[in-house]
Design a protein that fits this description.
Number of strands: 7
Distance between the termini: 8 Å
CATH architecture: Alpha-Beta Complex
CATH topology: Maf protein
Number of helices: 6
Strand content: 15-25%
Largest sheet: 7 strands, mixed
């Protein structure tokens, strides 16, 4: 386990779990941003913009508190973080962008649309170096084909409770694993963070102090 802290600019328990399982020492600094798409924005552009905004929001928060002696939030100088990572994931099909469903009915509609067909999962991610004030930004795409689903299967899956905080209304790492008939590309990208590409960016940017190897 590396001693240096990697700040995750996301409240997603799935992203935190992915990073910790890979050996990172993670501290969560969630960012609150406006996630409304901009007219004419591509799904790739959307995810990259949101990932960057999340990271910059966390960076501003860190910069305003790191040296606050009354309430530092960190144990000492050695614990002051250098690296911040953030991400955003969406599902696209039929030129539609599917984020997290707002209610059970929308979750059903998303699953009906995805059933028996191929869709695309896109995760944009950003890595920020606080010491050098520079950032990396990338998006990764994975194709997923769903098995055909009956109405009763969709109702049962929605009732399982996994849909409401997931892009596309499913969790491939949970009960929803049985929905995915075929996956082309990064599996962890579907969960919320393409670890291979994230670690490659860390290596390219010199983040050796946080790498778990």
């Amino acid at each position: 386990m590396p001693s240096a802290t990697l700040v995750l600019a996301s409240g997603s328990p799935r992203r935190k779990e992915l990073l910790e399982r890979a050996g990172f020492n993670v501290k969560v600094v969630p960012a609150t941003i406006d996630e409304e798409p901009i007219a004419g924005e591509t799904p790739v552009g959307y995810t990259k913009r949101l990932a960057r905004e999340k990271v910059l929001s966390a960076v501003r928060r860190l910069q305003s508190t790191l040296y606050n002696t009354e309430n530092p939030g960190w144990s000492g100088e050695a614990d002051i973080p250098r690296w911040v990572v953030g991400a955003d994931t969406v599902v696209t099909i039929d030129d539609m962008l599917l984020g997290k469903p707002t209610d059970v009915q929308e979750a059903r509609e998303m699953l009906i649309r995805l059933a028996g067909r191929e869709h695309t999962v896109i995760t944009g991610f950003s890595l920020f170096d606080l010491r050098r004030d520079r950032e990396g930004l990338q998006a990764v795409t994975t194709r997923v084909k769903f098995k055909p689903l009956t109405r009763s299967e969709i109702e049962a899956y929605v009732a399982a409770g996994e849909s409401m905080d997931k892009a596309g209304a499913y969790a491939v790492q949970g009960v929803g694993a049985y929905l995915a008939e075929e996956i082309t590309g990064s599996y962890t990208n579907i969960v919320g963070l393409p670890l291979c590409q994230v670690i490659e960016m860390m290596q390219e940017m010199g983040a050796t102090d946080i790498l778990p190897f």
